């Protein structure tokens, strides 16, 4: 009976952490839009919006790796005798996931000219400036891509509070950096 009570406490803690983590992220997104528009202008904000949308779409290239990792880690917690097998499986998926991120980032770098000249019809920025933005985005993408994987690991370990603290802290720092 005590184990059930402990499980309920973990579930309650994780629900609260997920709610507040998402609430902070959404609130920052809504509150900071006028600030972004003021400092960047509509066209620059549109370029950022394009890359944000693209990042969401590219999340599908995760190919189900992150949910699989979450399930595998959670199973490992329940079946400690499978620890070595689970660890090897997760390390293999980590390698695949990082490789996918590197390929996508390299794809942005290799297609930067075409994206700058034909996809991003920005009047305010030259194709050379947009190319630099695409290179920067490729770097940011490759840094952020592993967050999907390692966030899945933390979810599997039932460490949503830690994950949401990291994500909310990163959102706050990102908001401050813009100012």
Would you kindly provide a written description of the structure presented here, covering whatever features stand out?
With 179 residues, this protein is mostly helical. The protein has 7 helices and no strands.
Q: Which percent bin holds the helix content?
A: over 70%
**What global shape is seen?**
flat
Q: Treating each run of at least 4 consecutive H or I residues as one helix, how many helices?
A: 7
Subunit arrangement of the protein: single chain
SSE class: mainly alpha
Report how far the terminal alpha carbons are from each other: 51 Å
Largest sheet: none
Order of helices and strands: HHHHHHH
Radius of gyration: 20 Å
Average of the residue pLDDT scores: 82
Low-confidence stretches: none
DSSP, total strands:
0
Kindly estimate the percentage of residues that lie in beta strands according to DSSP. Answer: under 5%
Short description:
The protein is mainly alpha-helical and about 180 residues long.
Question: What's the SSE blueprint?
Answer:
Blueprint: H1 2-40, H2 42-58, H3 65-78, H4 83-110, H5 112-119, H6 127-156, H7 160-178
Helix pairs in contact: 1-2, 1-7, 3-4, 3-6, 4-6, 5-6
List keywords for this structure.
179 residues, mainly alpha, 87% helix, flat
């Amino acid at each position: 009976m005590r184990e059930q009570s402990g499980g309920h406490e973990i579930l309650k803690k994780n629900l609260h952490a997920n709610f507040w983590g998402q609430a902070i992220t959404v609130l920052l997104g809504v509150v900071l839009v006028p600030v972004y528009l003021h400092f960047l202008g509509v066209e620059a904000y549109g370029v950022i919006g394009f890359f944000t949308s693209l990042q969401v779409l590219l999340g599908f290239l995760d190919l189900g790796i992150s949910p699989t990792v979450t399930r595998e880690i959670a199973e490992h917690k329940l079946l400690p005798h499978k620890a070595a097998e689970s660890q090897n499986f997760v390390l293999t998926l980590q390698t695949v996931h990082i490789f996918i991120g590197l390929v996508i980032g390299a794809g942005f770098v290799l297609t930067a000219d075409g994206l700058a000249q034909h996809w991003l019809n920005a009047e305010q920025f030259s194709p050379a400036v947009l190319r630099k933005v695409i290179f920067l985005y490729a770097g940011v993408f490759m840094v952020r891509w592993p967050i999907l994987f390692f966030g899945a690991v933390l979810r599997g370990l039932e460490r949503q509070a830690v994950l949401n603290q990291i994500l909310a802290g990163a959102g706050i720092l990102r908001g401050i950096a813009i100012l």
